[in-house]
C-alpha cells in the first residue's frame, strides 16, 4: 500500500526542490560564460574570462541586494497604494484580529496589516524578515471570503513569511536586475571596441560578444524558467504550511476556488515582483499560462490541499 503524503512531506519536498533550483542559477551562469567564450579563445583564457566576469557580477548582485533589502518592501506597498490598518480601525478590526491569531498559531510575530483598495481577490506578503513583515489584502478578498477561507489565505501569506520566501524573491529579482544591466553594459563595450583593426582588440571584441551572448541566453531563457519553477515550488510549500497552521486545508482550498478567475488587477500586475508574491496570478492570463505563469494551476493546488484534508 503506497504511503500517504503528509503536510510535512509536501513541505520537505518543495524545500529540497527550491534549494536545488536556486543552486542552478550561479552554476548555469558560470557554465554559459565559460562555454561561449571557449568558442573564441583557448580553454585557459576562457576560464580566466569567466572568473573576471563572474566575480564583479556577484559583487554587483550583493550591493543591489542590500539596497533592495532596505527599501524593497516599502516600495512594493507604496506602488499599490496600500494603507495600514490597526486594532483601532472598526471597519477592519476582524481582519486585523484574524492576522494576529494566525500569526500566533504560526509562531510568528504579528505582521503589519495593509489594505489595498482594489476589488480583485488577491493578497501578498513582504518584508525583510518575520520581525518586520507585512501582509496586504485587497478589499475584494476581504468582502468575498468567509472567516475560515480568509484565515486560509492569511495562513498562506504567513507561511511565505515563515519560510523566508520574501527574502528569496528579493534575492532572485535583484540578481536578475543586475545581470540585465551587465548584459547591456557589455554589449555597448563590445560595439565600442568592434571597429578597431588591431588583432588583440578584435579578439577582445569577440570575447565580449560571446560574454554578452551568454548573459542574453541566461536572462531570456534560463532565468525566467528557473524563476517560474521556484515560484511554483514556493506556492505549493506555502499552501502546505498554511494548511498546517490552520489545521484546515479545505479553508484555503475553498478560498482558491473563489479567487480563481478573479485575481487579475492592474495595480498588482504592473510590478513583476508583486506578481510573484501574490497568492494568485494578478496578470491577464493567455493560452501559454502553463509555461509562463508564476503560479501553479489552481486546480493542482486545490487537489493537493484536498489530499491533505
Description:
It is a single chain. With 309 residues, this protein is mainly alpha-helical. The chain has one domain. 71% of the residues lie in helices and 6% in strands. The chain has helices at 7-38, 43-79, 93-106, 139-144, 147-162, 165-193, 199-246, 249-259, 266-269, 272-277, 289-292, 298-308, and strands at 83-85, 112-116, 123-126, 134-138. Strands 1-2-4-3 form a four-stranded mixed beta sheet, sandwiched between helices. Strand 3 (123-126) and strand 4 (134-138) form a beta hairpin. The chain is elongated, with a radius of gyration of 22 Å. The two termini are 19 Å apart.
Task: Provide keyphrases for this structure.
elongated, four-stranded mixed sheet, 309 residues, single chain, mainly alpha, 4 strands
